[in-house]
Amino acid sequence: MSNQPAAPLRLHVPEPTGRPGQPTDFSYLRLTPAGEMPMPALDCPAADMRQQAWGLIRVTDHEGNANGPWAPDLSPEQLQRGLRSMMKTRVFDARMQIAQRQKKVSFYMQCLGEEAIACAHALALQPGDMCFPTYRQQGLLISRDDVPLATMMSQLMSNANDPLQGRQLPVMYSFKYAGFFSISGNLATQFSQAVGWAMASAIKGDTKVASGWIGDGSTAEPDFHAALTFAHVYRAPVVLNVVNNQYAISTVQAIAGGETTTFAARGVGAGIASLRVDGNDFLAAYAASRWALARARANLGPTLIEWVTYRAGAHSTSDDPARYRPADDWQRFPLGDPIERLKRHLIVRGIWSDAQHEAAQEELQQEVLAAQKQAESHGTLLDGHMPPLETMFEQVYEHMPPHLADQMAQVRAEQEAQRHG
Ligand SMILES: Cc1ncc(C[n+]2csc(CCOP(=O)(O)OP(=O)(O)O)c2C)c(N)n1
Ligand SMILES: [Mg+2]
Question: In angstroms, rounded to a whole number, what is the distance separating the alpha carbons of residues 97 and 223?
Answer without folding.
Answer: 31
